[in-house]
Amino acid sequence: MQLLCLSNGHGEDAIALRILQALQQRSPNAKIAALPIVGEGHAFTDHGIAIVGTVKPMPSGGFIYQDGRQFARDLRGGLLKLTLAQRKTVRAWAKAGGVILAVGDIVPLLFAWMSGAPYAFVGTAKSEYYLRDEVGLLPRPTWFERMESWSGSVYLPWERWLMQRSHCRAVFPRDSLTAQVLQRWPIPVFDLGNPMMDGLEAPATEPVDRDGLTFVLLPGSRPPEAYQNWQRILVAVQALIDARLGRSLLFLGAIAPQLDLQPLSASLIAQGWTQNEDCFTQGKATIALSQTHYRDCLHEADFAIAMAGTATEQFVGLGKPALTIAGEGPQFTPKFAEAQTRLLGASAILLQDPRQAPKIVRSLLQDPDRLHLIAENGRRRLGATGAADRIAECLLDRFA
Question: What is the arrangement of strands in the sheet containing 322-325, beginning at the earlier edge strand?
Answer without folding.
Answer: 274-276, 279-282, 285-290, 249-254, 213-218, 303-306, 322-325, 348-351
